[in-house]
Amino acid sequence: MKSCKSKPRVGRIHSIESFATQDGPGIRFLVFMQGCTAGCLYCQNPDTWNLKAGFDMSAEEVLKKVKRCMPYIKASNGGITVSGGEPLLQIEFLIELFRLCKINNIHTAVDTSAFYNNHDKKLLQKLISLTGLFILDIKAGHETLHKKITSRSLCEVIDFLNILESEKKPYWLRYVLVPKLNDSKKDMQALKKILSGLAYCEKFEFLPYHTLGKHKWECMKLKYPLRNTPPASLQDIERAQLVLNK
After folding, report:
1. In a 3-state reduction of DSSP, which class is residue 157?
2. Residue 167 pLDDT exceeds 70
3. Sheet strand arrangement including 55-58
4. pLDDT tens, residue by residue, 70-115
5. CA nearest neighbour of 160 among 203, 126, 188, 121
6. Using the 8-state DSSP alphabet, how is residue 37 labeled?
7. For residues 225 and 216, what is the distance between their CA atoms, to the nearest angstrom?
8. Which residue ranges form the domains of the chain, and what is each CATH number?
9. Which residues contact 84 (CB under 8 A, 6 or more apart)?
10. Closest Cα to residue 173, out of 155, 186, 160?
């Protein structure tokens, strides 16, 4: 009788970048997962939204590509970062991929907006146990604006932060600063309230809003919501940072 082997776990992939330097420590092998249910107003990659687009890869196939890049990944104390889209929509694939990475001693990171769609908490905890670092985007400091930007509740992000804190898992926080949208003094004070008391946040940074993804909206015949919004300047970032520092 032939042994019954389970089918390899397959993920829906948008694209792969083999030499990334801004998505975790060291040089990263960066995997963009396909699919997102948020549709953020300033999304740089609206081409990742469609859950049925992209291409399939097994966890083993991704690992094979990572191993080809290991000389410079190891030399820089880097690893693999999975982004998107929203990678948590394919949490079971991430678990399988990161399980293989752990066996091979490869550092793992997840870049997420925390929209995990109320997955089984056991699955989420399993992923957290296999992940070396989370890079978490926070879009706004209060509920109304957060829903306007993402169509999702800020409570999802806060709940995810609380889970990471309870699991004592290190994470980075990022905030895209958009002029006249989420950069007011009121916005910064709300953000400061969220940031206060976080024990396992290793790094916080403002990312200046830019329009480099606007052409993708136009190519997809989508109306870009922030077409009249200028990019954030260095002075905008410094002004926001000053409020946080106070």
Report:
1. helix
2. yes
3. 55-58, 10-20, 28-33, 79-83, 107-112, 133-137, 171-177, 201-208
4. 999 999 999 999 999 999 999 999 999 999 999 999 999 999 999 8
5. 121
6. S
7. 13
8. 10-245 (3.20.20.70)
9. 14, 32, 33, 34, 35, 36, 45, 48, 111, 112
10. 160
